[in-house]
Design goal:
Layout (H helix, E strand, L loop, with lengths): L2 H6 L2 E10 L2 E11 L4 E5 L6 H8 L7 E6 L2 E2 L5 H11 E4 L11 H11 L6 H10 L15 H13 L5 E5 L7 H18 L2 E5 L3 H4 L4 E6 L2 E2 L1
Parallel strand pairs: 3-8, 3-9, 6-7, 7-8
Antiparallel strand pairs: 1-2, 1-4, 4-5, 9-10
The chain binds adenosine-5'-triphosphate (ATP) and magnesium ion.
Length: 223
Amino acid sequence: MNQAHANTATLAVAGVSKTLGGVQLFKDVNLQLQQGESLAVVGESGSGKSTLLHLMAALDQPDTGEVYWADKNICTLNTNQVAAIRLRHVGLVFQAYYLMPHLSARQNVELPFLLAGQKPDSAHASLLLEQVGMAHKANSFPREMSGGEQQRVAIARALALNPPLILADEPTGNLDEDNAERVLQVLLQACNTHGCALVMVTHSMKAAGHLNQQLSLAEHRLV
Ligand SMILES: Nc1ncnc2c1ncn2[C@@H]1O[C@H](COP(=O)(O)OP(=O)(O)OP(=O)(O)O)[C@@H](O)[C@H]1O
Ligand SMILES: [Mg+2]
């Protein structure tokens, strides 16, 4: 890793490999994303896209290689240090959403503020819920929402603190065409107006085409 590059990139992945269950998913993955850049990762089901995104989020450790958030090599940090930085540096949209079941849509979107020790910015939460088309369900709980509705709340939550890096796993996976387009525009707006870097895993070539760069996870390589 060229240290000068690591210092300026919002996300840098250097020589990363991962084996799970005795199967090598990928090896020698290298990429860098600067402020405002967006990358789509495509690939067959089971190719390791979610695993790679989880490594970028420091939810798992690579077998070899390193992951940098700005100037921090996160592979050298302990769990508490990573969690503290992740809260402000990374907005995560999981493939399975992981909303807090006992919190309403609004409370889920405001949760990152509380975790960061800040007073929730209700106006910002309202704006995000409106942008993802969920303002009318702000007081609904996850059990009262469809999968696609939960997905949209999860996207609003990921954007709550305007994180420098957004990692989104199939964020349009359960959405109709109009809502997929709406969500994509919200994510791209975060790149264009706040300078976020975005990595989006997707099966949709149409969605991937909206981003700056498209890479495919195939035959254990990101190409
Ligand atoms: N903890 C684990 N132990 C063993 N194998 C695992 C583990 N987690 C994932 N795998 C396997 O690793 C492979 C890659 O999983 P991953 O979830 O990264 O795929 P994906 O590309 O995101 O697929 P999809 O498009 O279906 O979401 C799969 O074959 C999966 O079964
Ligand atoms: Mg996946």
